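Below is one such record:
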Amino acid sequence: QVQLVESGGGWMQPGGSLRLSCAASKSTFSFNAMGWYRQALGKQRESVATLTSSNNRNYADSVKGRFTISRDNAKDTVYLQMNNLKPEDTAVYYCYADEVRGSIKLNYWGQGTQVTVSS
């Protein structure tokens, strides 16, 4: 089974930065797409950032210009650099990966890591 292990969450003051990491148990080249979702208390889960195998990037409007998704294939790791953090960014952040095997699409999720932005 593919495992995604997240790290880097925690507390940060508004305006600060955090970098989330998602280490995969297999080569990130295997995935059609990887990215990050988040879910704040009482709110729906939302897509934050997506990085495809062709290096196409998509961001939620709320994080454009502040968050950057990147990949280090040598380390089988995807990152989410979060700058100028706002209290509204407080949520549990989940790494995900989509793998296409023939006609089958498989989805994998990390365990989630809490990000809290407050003063």
